[in-house]
Specification:
Blueprint: H1 6-19, H2 26-34, H3 37-41, E1 44-49, E2 56-61, H4 67-74, E3 80-84, E4 87-88, E5 96-97, E6 101-105, H5 108-118, E7 126-129, H6 135-144, E8 149-153, H7 156-169, E9 174-177, E10 190-199, H8 204-207, E11 210-221, E12 227-235, E13 239-244, E14 271-274, H9 285-294, E15 298-303, E16 306-311, E17 317-322, E18 330-335, H10 340-353, E19 362-366, E20 371-375, E21 382-384
Parallel strand pairs: 7-8, 7-10, 8-9, 10-11
Antiparallel strand pairs: 1-2, 2-5, 3-4, 3-6, 11-12, 12-13, 13-19, 14-18, 15-16, 16-17, 17-18, 19-20, 20-21
Helix pairs in contact: 1-2, 2-6, 9-10
Length: 387
């Protein structure tokens, strides 16, 4: 069998993305056909496997993999994790049981689609938050021109790895190792800011680095494990407004916005009553997002027929499940100063009363005083984000 070259595999991936209605812009397509992703995967990736109850991450090294197999892995339209709990795959001593991904090479289709959605074109000044492996930065360099690109990464090991890869691939944007939530005011203003991490809210200082009329593309997430990609246009007076985009986009949360560690905890007795909603609604993409808006300081645990919310600030708990002993409906047990499930039920009821629309029917407004997510229109039902 004839081995396909990297260039041939890139062309095949681009043809797939065009056929899937992901790629449209000719310059973004050219970037996808040009940038060598294999350089940005580096020397190793983590491959996941999922025995019951746990994920095992096994480092797969480039030197131990046949060259044609490595290229096939490279040009799959999928995410490859490159760092677990701060340890790069190339530095891992062996498989890692459990653990949380802290850096990855996101599937190219999502990255390229986001670059299109953000309106990146030649000559626009772009800030990338979350350099990661450097692949997204290389794509943007091809489209906007490397002199117009600033890319910021908080993890020093990942930043250095990306710096080497970008140099090897022939790109020289401005690279900054710092907290991406603070932006890079020294090179502001920007026409476009794209975050390849998620945030609980938009830091206002970051918003002020975007020129009026500019675009911020960011995934909002939180401790409820829900995500929504919103495209905001910055207006005069330090405000911004926009709508959530269709699709299912998720990113690792920015480290300063992640929930604080709490260690083992015990589910304690509390007040029990029938639940007004099926707990499984929190497994639905928009239902989970609506629940997160209602209880923004609660970490969501459990899944399916049993949902557990743990408020990390007050210790409040809510446990909702199907009625015991074959009974009909669902029950909830709550404990603590916050009635977490009450808030979730009210939020879900509002969403359902409007026809349970997908997240693309929601929008967001930022002012100097508040950040709100709204349903339908800016004067519709809304929820305040934690800032």
């Amino acid at each position: 069998m004839t081995r396909e070259t990297a260039a041939e595999l890139r062309r095949r991936l681009v043809e797939q993305l065009v056929a899937d209605d992901v790629l449209h812009d000719p310059e973004v397509r050219r970037a996808a056909e040009t940038v060598p992703r294999e350089v940005f995967l580096g020397r190793a990736i983590y491959k996941p496997s999922s025995p019951p109850g746990v994920t095992v991450w096994t480092p797969t090294r480039r030197d131990d993999t046949p060259a044609d197999e490595w290229l096939r892995l490279t040009y799959q339209n999928r995410t490859w994790v490159t760092q677990i709990d701060g340890v790069l795959a190339e530095d891992a001593a062996g498989p890692v049981t459990g653990g949380s991904p802290t850096s990855s090479s996101t599937l190219p289709g999502v990255v390229l689609w986001m670059i299109e959605q953000a309106g990146v074109v030649r000559g626009k000044r772009v800030l990338i938050i979350g350099t990661g492996t450097g692949l997204s930065t290389a794509y943007v360099c091809e489209v906007a021109g490397e002199q117009n690109v600033t890319s910021i990464e908080t993890d020093t090991d990942a930043a250095e790895r990306a710096r080497r890869a970008l140099g090897e691939a022939g790109y020289a944007p401005a690279l900054v190792t710092a907290d991406g939530l603070r932006g890079c005011p020294d090179r502001a203003p920007y026409d476009v800011v794209i975050a390849f991490c998620s945030m609980r809210h938009v830091p206002y200082g970051l918003l002020r680095q975007i020129a009026p009329g500019g675009t911020l593309l960011v995934t909002l997430s939180g401790w409820g494990a829900a995500h929504g990609l919103v495209r905001l246009t910055v207006e005069d007076g330090g405000t911004a407004r926009g709508r959530f985009l269709p699709g299912y986009t998720s990113f690792m949360i920015a480290r300063p916005h992640d929930h604080p560690p709490h260690g083992p905890f015990e589910l304690l007795p509390g007040e029990e009553r029938p639940s007004r909603i099926d707990p499984a609604l929190l497994d639905e993409w928009t239902g989970r997002f609506v629940a997160q808006l209602a209880a923004p300081s609660a970490e969501r645990l459990g899944a399916g027929a049993e949902q557990v919310l743990l408020d990390v600030a007050t210790g409040s708990q809510a446990r909702a499940a199907r009625a015991a002993h074959g009974g009909e409906g669902w029950t909830v047990i709550q404990r603590g100063p916050l009635d977490l499930w009450n808030s979730v039920e009210d939020s879900v009821a509002t969403w359902r009363s409007h026809g349970s629309p997908f997240l693309s029917e929601f929008g967001m407004t930022i002012t100097p005083d508040a950040q709100r997510v709204w349903l339908g229109a800016p004067n519709g039902p809304s929820w305040a984000l934690p800032v």
